[in-house]
Design a protein that fits this description.
- The chain has about 800 residues and is α+β, with helices and mostly antiparallel strands.
- About 50% of the residues lie in helices and about 20% in strands.
- It is built from 27 helices and 22 strands.
- The strands form 3 sheets. Strands 3-4-9-6-8-7 form a 6-stranded mixed beta barrel.
- A hairpin with a 2-residue loop joins β1 and β2.
- α23 packs parallel to α26.
Length: about 800
Amino acid sequence: MLKNHFKIAWRSLKKQPFFTFLNIFGLAIGIAGSLLISLYIIDELSYDKMFADADRIHRINNDIKFGGEDRKFAVSPAPIAEALENDFSEVELATRFRTRGSALVKRTGTEVNVKELQSTFVDSTFFKMFGIKLLVGDIKTALTAPNTVVLTKTAAEKHFEINEALGQTLELNNSQTFTVTGVIDDLPKNSFLREHTVFMAMAGYEDSRVVNWGSNNYQTFIKLIPSANIDDIQEPLRGFLGKYVIPGVQQFMPGITEEQFKAAGNHLIFSTIPLTDIHLNSDRIAEISPNNNIQGIYILSFIAIFLLVLACVNFMNLSTAHSLKRAKEVGVRKTLGSNKTDLVRQFLVESGLVSFGALLLALVVAIIALPFFNQLADKDISMPYSNPLFWLILFVSGIFLGLFSGSYPAFFMSKFIPVEVLKGSNSNSIGGSRVRNGLVIFQFAISVFLIVGTLVVYQQLQYIQNKDLGFSKDQVLIIDDVYALGDKRLAFKEEVKKLGYVKNVTLSSYFPTPSSRSDSTFAPEDGLTDQESAVSMQTWGVDHDYISTLGFEIVAGRNFDKTFKNDSTSIIINESAVATIGLTPQEVIGKRYTSDLGQENPQFLTIIGVVKDFHFSPFRDDIEALSLGLDKFAGSMAVKLSTADFQTALTGVESVWNKLAPGQPFDYYFMEDSFNKTYKAEQRLSSIFFIFTSLSILIACLGLFGLAAFNAEKRTKEIGVRKVLGASVGQITYKLTQDFLRLVAIGILVALPIGWFAMDKWLQDFSYRISIGWEVFIIAPLLAVTIAIFTVSYQSIKAAVVNPVKSLRTE
């Protein structure tokens, strides 16, 4: 019997190639899109799960409100690791990271440096914590001694053979010598340490041994014993404020108590986050690697579900519409003895064939599209061909989709009453018009919702791109690692400044786009021990040309000036810092503040100027208080160019570099590119929205196109009669089109408020954002209606121009 079902199903599908193609193609597009999104989501959810005992590893978070700033840190004080091991029997192990950014590495005795993107100081317990094995070296002794280093395999091979690595010496940043005590395998791309290649012994980092509970610089991880529950340590962890932090702060602010600290509206809360949750659920200051957002995963999950549901709805719609042609077949089958169960099986076999045909086509489409999708999503995803689970899921999905998409048409057609369908009566109800109409409304509601989302994301990105940032990011070249020049940094600056296409040059480690960040607590001269007068500000070291090079606007006071010798003990602050202090920009000029709290002879810094607020954090965050002070150390150099011929400028600057720093890597980027990289996640979301919105519209249009063709075919005689009675082609086209447009209009009315609500929620994550304008609610409906008209009108016009004689002859 099953063989008979397959044979009849195959014949039926071959008999109606147009509708078979629409069903298979529409379903394949939905499955392919969902498959790609699913692979992306699986990759995102896999982060950091490869580490041994990952479910028992947690990071310490730190929420601090003090000095007018409320910050959420991914870092904590250096001594907290020891305190956690001593105070909690639940803690098996603790490990700290102190990231140092990029590093120039060369073998001792050579001149040429190799740049490694990420380096970090780490405790020797690192290997045991994460279950990382050494390719060479002893896990018990690696990183236990000061000035020792462990490299990843790729980093080590740039300097020597792996089996020769132990005992070799390397120079880092042309200043420190380290002995290699181990080599580990390259870390997975889906781990929080994916870009880290150089691991230096924390034992050689002096700051890590200083008991300072007021400085937050260390990523601290703990591993619990197997029987422990992380919830058991949350409340005692909050007690660290009174037990350790306040006594530590009292050396700077004598007399301060926990009660006074809290009464002033301040707080300090230590908490934990599971290692496997960090990538999608943590967006804090000083993350060890860039993270993604769980919100984006939810959005993509909904899009994947929408695509599948749209494709299945498309199948249901076309099948129920086409059931009119098969009504007599059902009537004959029932008359000859077929029961309802046999008919349901027959139609489910047909839907199963369509489903598996669509699944095969979808797999081909996904394989072809995967390289482009990887480029869009910034991933390296591959099809898991060797994984039996992958094929099992595909097989089960094919069966499920066949049952889901074919169930309603199967049960619907099996209910036909033989007497009525053979007489031709009740033909108007056979097609299930109410259900079809509801499905069309559903399809276009989803499509319009996605159009609204695409427009809002695009407008927010345009707003970010065009908003006045408070500084000039255009034609600014950033050159990294200028410390490699040693005492030739100033000479390099002056040589570059002489180039004809250079406007200005500044040396600094701090820039408004992603770069170094450092903050300190300042107290006024007349309130050194008053916590309510304290101001928490980021502190950036700059030179005299910084403000003029980047185009900051001074709203009060003056810029740094080489003729003023006391400017070495002066600072310039931004408007947000002025607001935190509680004075006007003019009133704050001349005020003296110090960050040397608790010292006998603190150095006071005089405020000589106020710059207009500029955006140095993502638009999701408010502009924080900031101070600029003169500093001779600089890790980078910014060059303001006067030409758009960047290649000529790069060649000129690089030639100066090679002359003064032979053998040192010339590493650069443009500030505008760095700014755009900050919003890469939003740009990726915008592109994904656009692509999958287009796919959803395509699927909806395929269904609408098929329904329009069926509708025109069903009303052939009606069209002939209307033409004979004098109706024009335009009038007939309008008549055939208006019913569909009414359904699209209802879909639009359903989708617009839901789209507004969802995207308004998304925008709430941005401190600086657009308001959803009226144009979105005009463009989205117009676009949907236009697409629907073009889709339906072709079939309508095609039916309207047919000779009425032929129309009236049709059966």
